[in-house]
Amino acid sequence: MSATPATPLAHDADALLQRLGVPRAAYTGGDLPVRSPITGETLGAVPQSTPAQVAAAIGRAQAAFLEWRNLPAPRRGELVRLLAQELRAARDELGGLVTLEAGKIPSEGQGEVQEMIDICDFAVGLSRQLYGLTIATERPGHRMMETWHPLGVCGVITAFNFPVAVWSWNAALALVCGNAVVWKPSEKTPLTALATLAIARRALERFGAAPAGLLELIVGQRATGQALVDDARVALLSATGSTAMGRAVGPRLAARFARGILELGGNNAAIVAPTADLDLALRGIAFAAMGTAGQRCTTLRRLFVHDSVYQTLVPRLIGVYGRVQVGDPRSPGTLVGPLIDRMAFDGMQQALAQSRALGATVHGGNRVEGIAGDAAYYVRPALVELARHEGPALHETFAPILYVLRYRSLDEAIALNNAVGAGLSSSIFTLDMREAEQFLSAAGSDCGIANVNIGPSGAEIGGAFGGEKETGGGREAGADSWRAYMRRATNTINYSTALPLAQGVTFDI
Ligand code: NAD
Fold it and tell me: Which GO terms describe its molecular function (predicted)?
């Protein structure tokens, strides 16, 4: 590709990248084409990192870590404070680039950058709260305590659907904890990653005292991610993506005893109980199921509606599905933008065909033509009425499909909520506190996130984010999230002249 932008969207992306300070050579003339899901046009061509470049980036990060770990944590927090400032200044441009590259509507693109700012603010506070305990010891004249130390190089692999926020969830915490970060973004969204690094570079320059190599970016596909997974210098690997990716990554990390944070797929449900505020439930369901065109890990995919309210709620919901504005995310009023690519469209159509074959009633789900030509994939979100909990409803299809099923008792609905491999997010709409509490109890939802009277989607910094079972078990952004990025040491100090042994053991020589 030439240095002159070839298409109108490439022109817009180029203007944003220039304003964000990304050199043109970083996104032109490379071997990885980047397409916008809005029209299917090519936005740029990014050079992929060679294996030697990946190894060198990890090496630079390792060297940076050895220096960075010696700076006091509140001082490290100062860098993250500056990063938040730079992100605030760049919010419109970076959010706009998220829209172009990932197809999100502008409020979601900007929202993603806001989330980056929020995690930075959160991490700055934590930089003065990396507490260890002092522990009562059974030995007189002794003190026992725990200390927390920086871990090393943190590898971060991210998915296309949150192309920048997930990096910041990891990087902000990893930095205050004294680590260096090597990021492998999704091959579908490298431009926003380049822009994020350009923003971070400004914070590093203003900070002055950060070693080179503290924040590294490597660009490539699965094999590039695998190089990060397998490198013994990477102490922690945080990987966000599909459960299939986690199945490949998890055992490789385990084989070299590396730490992992796995944030994988979800198959999230909501229960609408007899007492639910149905107006509120309708809005909550609509956002959670159709927002981001169904391409959030927390997207609502299964809805269990009590028999007594099914006929009141579901026809209204079908009406909303028929009316919601699908279109170019930049057009005013659009709530549902494009699917990321053809593979996502094919996956959706396949799941709908399987549902039909099982006798389900499918509303919507068709391709919406006339928005941007053949190379873009816009769909009307699908609502699928099921008689049984089976088939594609049991697995995540990363597209806007909502499976709807009747239930009769709360026990039955909770069992259905829990009857899938994934365990990310869940919610109940009810005004009955007994039902709400049962849903949140040990015998309730088995997910990492369980909500009442809001949908399963739309997490907030401060709460631990992540899920159980096939979602991978990782947690990010919670109050103690920093511990994942540090290593813990237990220290026993003897300030007496005796040497009492623990458990009363005697060893007289
Ligand atoms: P994906 O699994 O295709 O790719 C995610 C990332 O993993 C990419 O950077 C990819 O290059 C890399 N990758 C893939 N296979 C790999 C391997 N074997 N070794 C190393 N790296 C590998 O996912 P996607 O399509 O980009 O994103 C959608 C998926 O991500 C959905 O399943 C969604 O639920 C999930 N997701 C989860 C969370 C969460 O926090 N739980 C957040 C966002 C997305």
Answer: aldehyde dehydrogenase (NAD+) activity
Strands 382-385 and 401-407, by their bridges, are parallel
3-state secondary structure of 89: helix
Tokens of 215: 């924040």
The reply to whether ligand 1 has any atom less than 6 angstroms from the CB of 249 is yes
Q: What is the CATH number of the domain that holds 231?
A: 3.40.605.10
Q: What does each C-alpha distance from 505 to 138, 139, 440, 498 come to in angstroms?
A: 12, 12, 46, 14
On whether residue 38 sits in a domain, the answer given is: no
Q: Which atom of ligand 1 is nearest to the CA of 424?
A: 41
The closest residue, in CA terms, to atom 12 on ligand 1 is 222
Count the domains in the chain.
2
Is position 263 annotated as part of the catalytic site? yes
What's the predicted TM-score (pTM) here? 0.98
Containing 310, the helix (H) or strand (E) segment is: helix 307-323
Residue 279 has pLDDT above 80, yes or no: yes
Q: Is the ipTM of this complex over 0.95?
A: yes
- By CB atoms closer than 10 A (0-12, 13-18, 19+), residue 31 is exposed
Is the Cβ–Cβ distance between 149 and 182 less than 8 Å?
A: no
- E strands in 279-336: 300-306
Q: By C-alpha distance, which of 177, 184, 176 is closest to 82? A: 176
Please tell me whether residues 255 and 288 are part of one structural domain.
no
pLDDT on residue 4: 53
**Structural domain includes residue 459:** yes
**Are residue 457 and residue 478 in the same domain, yes or no?**
no
The catalytic residue among 112, 263, 385, 435 is 263
